[in-house]
Description:
Strands 1-2-3-4 form a 4-stranded antiparallel beta sheet. A 4-stranded antiparallel beta sheet has the order 5-6-7-8, with helices on one face. A hairpin with an 8-residue loop joins strand 1 and strand 2. By secondary structure, it is of the alpha+beta class. Helix content is 48%, strand content 9%. It folds into 3 domains: 19-80 and 185-277 and 412-504, no CATH class; 89-171, Nuclear Transport Factor 2, Chain: A (Roll); 285-388, no CATH class. It contains 13 helices and 8 strands.
Amino acid sequence: MTIHSSPLPESRSNDSEKPGHGSAPPSHDSASPGCASTSPGPARRGWFGQFLRRLHFYAGIFVGPFILVAALSGALYALSPQLEKLVYADELSVPPAAETLPLADQVSAADNYIGPGHTISAVRPAPEPGATTRVMYADPELGESESRAVFVNPATAEVTGDLTVYGTSGALPLRTWIDQLHRGLHLGDFGRYYSELAASWLGIIAAAGLGLWVTRFVKARRKSTLLHPTTRHKGLRRTLSWHASVGVWVGIGMLFLSATGITWSQLGGDNVTKLREALDWTAPAVSTDLAESDGASGAGEHAHHQGAGDSTEADTTGPAVDPGDFDMMLSMARQINIDSTQVEILPPEDASQAWVVQEIQRSYPTQVDAVAFDPDTMEVTDQVDFSDYGHVSKLARWGIDIHMGTMFGLANQIVMFLVAIAIAAMVVWGYVMWWQRRPKHDPSRRFGITPARGVLRGAPWWGVAAVVVGAVAVGVLLPLVGLSLIAFVVVDVLLGARARRRSRS
C-alpha cells in the first residue's frame, strides 16, 4: 500500500441538483481553474463550505495524478504477497517433513553454497512444515536494507534458491519492485516526493470531501440517496452520485492510508518521527551494546564462538560465527520470551555487540518480542516485549501492518486492494465531473467551472485566523503540503489577475 490514495476533485455543488439535495447556487464560469472572478460581499453564511469546496477542487485537480498512480501501484502491492508465493514457489516451499535438521546443518549448507568471504547477517528458521529456512548474508553490492538470502530445505539441508530480500518484511524481488514503484516510481529519493505529496494531500482532500458530503447530507430530504450511487440520472448527477457515495464509504480508509503513508515519507515522516520522540511515543528497541564488553579479548567460556584472538581480523571482518550458535541462541530465547514460529536470529556485528533473537510476526496477534544475549556469559543483556510498547507505539505498529496488508492476511490484502481501486475510481470520476461541468456554450473555454474565489473575504475574523493557523501548522509538519499550497495560491492569484484584465478589455 506503499498506499495507498485519491483526490476527490469536485468543483462545487451540482448546479443541476434539486435544492433538496443540498445544491449551491451556480458559480461563475471560468476558462481554467481559478479564473472565476467573483467579488464576495460582506461576511456571509456558508463560507466554510465554499472554502472546503475550493480546497477540494484545487487539490484534486492538481494532485490527482499523483494520487492516481499511488492508488494503482498500492492496489498492485496489495496483491504482491500472493504473487510472491506463486512466482517463488520453488524457493519458498518444500515437501513437509516430520523431522528437521538442526540450524547448524542448515547454516553450514548455506555457507558451503555461497563460499568463503561472506558474513551472515541473520537467519530465519522455517516457520512451518513445508517452508524453507532463510540464511541471509550482508552484501556491499546490494542497496540499503537489502541482503542476499540462501533458501534451505530444513529437512534435507538442500539449497533451493538464492535471492535478494528487502527489509524486515523479507520481500523478494517482485514485491520489492512493486514496493519501490509505489514508494518512488524507481526514481530513488527524488521519486519519493511523489508519494509523499500524494499521501500528504490525500487526507486533506478526503477530509474536505467528507465535509462537503456532510453538508449535503444535512440538507438532503432523502438522505438514503447519498449513501449509494444513483441509476436514475445521467451525466453529471450520476457521476457525482458515484463519486460522493463511494467516497463516504472509503473516506475513513483514505484518512488511514494518508496518516500511515506519511510515516514512510522523507520530509513529513522525519517531522512525525521527531514529534513522536519529543512526546516519548517511540517504540522501545532492544539494545545490542555490551556495556562491559572487553572488545576482542575472547574472555569467557564461549569465547571460541566469537572468533577472538586476532583483533585485527575481528576489526575488518567481524567475529566468526559457529553455525551451532544459532541453535543455542534460539533454544535460550524460547525459554524466555520468544514463542512465535516466525523469528529472526541476528549474530553480533562485532565483539562489542550482543546476539539478538526477535519475533517478526506482524499478523494478528502481533508478536515482536526481542531478547539480547551476551555471547561470553550467555546472560540476557536486554529484553523488549510488545507489552512494553506504549499505546501510540502499538497503534503505529498495527497501522503500518494493516497498511501493508500483513495484519489480517488475505482478508487484509483484499480490503486494501478494494480501497485502492475505489480511490483510483474517485480520481477518475473527479476529472469526469470537471469535464461535465465545463461551460458548453463558449467553445474557447475548455475546462470546468471552479468554486467562487475569495470565500475567506466573507468569513469572520476568527474563521480566517483558524484557516491561516491550520495551514501554517500543516505546512510546517508536512513541508510538501506547505510548498504546494503556496504554489496553488500563486497560480490562483495569477489567473485571477488575468481574468480581471480580460474583463476590462
